[in-house]
Structure formats: C-alpha cells, structure tokens
# Entry
Amino acid sequence: MQTNLRLDTAAPVSAPARISVQSRRHNDMRREAIRAHPELSTLSGADPRTALALPVLLAAHWGVAWLVSDSSVLVIGLTAFIVGQLIYHSAASLIHETCHKLIFRGPRAKLGLIWRWNSS
# Structure
C-alpha cells in the first residue's frame, strides 16, 4: 500500500502530495468537462443560498413526522423509510457539501455556526 506521507523529514507535505488518486481523477474529470463545456462553470462554486435548504429540509422532516404521528405503525414505518430517508440523505449531502466549502467560502467557513463562534 502506497502512502503519501513522507516520514524522512519534518517538512510539511505539499498539498498535491496529500490528494488521493481518486481526488486527482475527480479534479481532472471536472477540468476536462469544463474545458469541453465552458458553460458548466456557471453551475459550480459556492452558493450561500443553499444554507437555507437545511432548515427547510429539517422542518419538512418534522412536519411529515407530525402528520403521520396518529397513523398506523405501517404508515409511520413506510413514511420513515421512504420520505424520512430521502430527507435525511439530502440533509447529510448538504452537510457534506459544507465540508468542501461549497456553501460558504473562506478559510474558516466550513459550518456557519463554527465560523460565527470563531469570529467573535
């Protein structure tokens, strides 16, 4: 197994050496797609409006749970399995995107609350 860490020196490893093969491949594919279709670049990048989607998703999740709360166990189970997992997956994907700084930009802006606490 190949590792990208250099153990023979205390000098920091440069950023490209820390990028995995899969990440490099992903970056190369993205660059090729943008080179072939320049209009794609308008669809990518950070968009702070996306942060509003997370509270909406969580409100929808709680709203659906409240709507089916008086239903049978079968309806609650199917709703949780179908609707609940769809909303949960969407929320987790949004949180994942914040880790890639695709919602907020800046050196400390991975999560809005952490950014707020660190800036005060």
